[in-house]
Amino acid sequence: MKQFEGLPREIIALRVSREIEDNSYVNLGIGIPTLISNWLEGRDVILQSEIGMLKTGSIAEGEDIDQDLINASCQPVMEVPGSVYFDICESFAMIRGGHVDVTVMGAFQVNERGDFASWLNPSRGLKGIGNVGGSMDLAFGAKKLFIAMEHTTNDGSPKIVGELTYPATARKKVDKIFTDLAVIEIIPEGLLLKEIYPGLSVQDIQSVTEPKLLVSRDLKEIEL
Amino acid sequence: MNKIAASMEEALAGIEDGAIIAIGGFFAAGVPRLLLKALIDKGAKDLTLACGSGPLLGAQEELNGLVKNGQIKKMIDSYGLFRSATKGAQHPFEQQVRSGKIELEVYPMGTLCEKYRMAGAGIPAFYVPVGAGTLLQESTSTNVEENRKKKETRVIDGQTCLLEYALKPDFALVHAYEGDSEGNLRYRKTARNFNHVMAMAAHVTIAEVENLVAPGELDPDSVHTPGIFVQRVVKVNRITFDITNL
């Protein structure tokens, strides 16, 4: 059981969207990050899709669906004025080469050093292999890496942990964590709690977070 | 030059048991489905299918056929397992991966595409920082334990990097929207993905094209894959499928 009710997934996505500056190239991973695109419409932000597309449009429906036009999650998407296509090596040159400004990914676990795990769920029972996809490349190359996820698992266990128990995707890369309960920045000293869900206390957040939290002097309610 | 194969049989000539075959496509986009169907008919066994990002998850009929025929010995991919663990657990492909009958070797997508590009560009190995500090730094990521080779690493500019080798397939099966009889190819939208780099990489590249044209009909400034990388071209009809139902 989850101990606290927080923001719905769509609203975590909205909060992350506020953190993305105009004129950014952005890559959004699977899960909550995918929902962020709904909040970026009309913003001067260009979405990179690792399948080989810049300026990825919204999800296509009905007559607009084109079987040759999908995003990296295999969802049909729209072409918009200024969209471009390219091959996979060029796409990963953008990603690995540090040309993407902001990458947002989901995670099973994050620790206070900015390591995170997202690619291999040991409960699947396939030892040493998983669907890594572009996750390690994206994490490595991101100028800024945000994690958007639920604060705990469905059974209430912390996902922000002292040591990862799931295999790491990358080390020392995460800049900020956005959850249903809090916004936490990773600084050299550890986890800096910056925003909390209205009505919850620092102690509440600490009770579902393994490492000791540092509390920002400007601590406030999650801003939407 | 005329690279047109008159039939699928002619297009796939020379593919023998044990071949390493690159398969273009990214999930459902740009998968050479008709060449795959012909490969099932041909029945070559012990194949290593060198993929990029789950083309056989986007072509499940073809995956089912290959598995049913027992043609796959090994798959190389960045995203080879079903997204849904529940669906995967019930699928014969994943059951055979679980039992070790089929080997699945996994690379980060950007490393994998570069392994193909390096093969095409004549560079035998390269150092890449992606995967440092993860399981991938320790050994090859594969379900077959005895095939896990220790990774060589080197610190470059303070960053641990992994040594990765070029991956040169015997054949590549690619899908293009247009092509001419000399093998020049153009892809459509996100169906380009791995097709170009796999065409570069393989000893023999076989392209299925939806529109076959004469030399001179493609705008020379807009060719994606120059014909030097393509050995055979076969005309196919465009097949339509529901990408929302995967």
Provide keyphrases for this structure.
heterodimer, A: 224 residues, alpha/beta, Glutaconate Coenzyme A-transferase, 10-stranded mixed sheet, 3-stranded mixed sheet, B: 246 residues, 2 domains, 8 helices
> Of all protein chain pairs, which has the greatest interface, and how many residues does each chain bring to it?
A-B, 49 and 62 residues
Largest sheet of chain B: 9 strands, mixed
- Oligomeric status: heterodimer
Class from secondary-structure proportions of chain A: alpha/beta
Percent strand of chain A: 25-35%
Number of E-state strands of chain B: 12
Helix fraction of chain B? 10-25%
Instruction: Write the element-wise H/E pattern of chain B from the N-terminal end onward.
Output: HEHEHEHHEHEHEEEEEHEE
Q: Which architecture of chain A would the CATH scheme give at its second level? A: 3-Layer(aba) Sandwich
Secondary structure category of chain B: alpha/beta
Under the CATH scheme, which class of the largest domain in chain B?
Answer: Alpha Beta
The proportion of residues in beta strands of chain B is 15-25%
Alpha carbon gap, first and last residue of chain B: 40 Å
CATH superfamily of the largest domain in chain B: Glutaconate Coenzyme A-transferase
Query: Count the helices of chain A. How many?
Result: 5
Tally of domains of chain B: 2
- What's the mean pLDDT score of chain B? 97
What is the CATH T-level topology of the largest domain in chain B?
Answer: Glutaconate Coenzyme A-transferase
What Rg of chain B do the Cα atoms give? 18 Å
The CATH topology name of chain A reads Glutaconate Coenzyme A-transferase
